[in-house]
Amino acid sequence: MRAYLYDNSDADQRELHDSGIPVSIKELNDINVQYQQLKGTLDEQMEVVEKLCVERSYKNRDEIHISPELLDNYDEKIKIFFTEHIHEDEEIRFIMAGAGFFDVRDRLDRWVRIRVEVGDLLVVPAGIYHRFTLDTSNYIRAMRLFKEDPKWTPINRPEADGNKYRLEHLKEIGPLSFC
Question: Which helix (H) or strand (E) covers residue 99, if one does?
Answer without folding.
Answer: strand 91-105
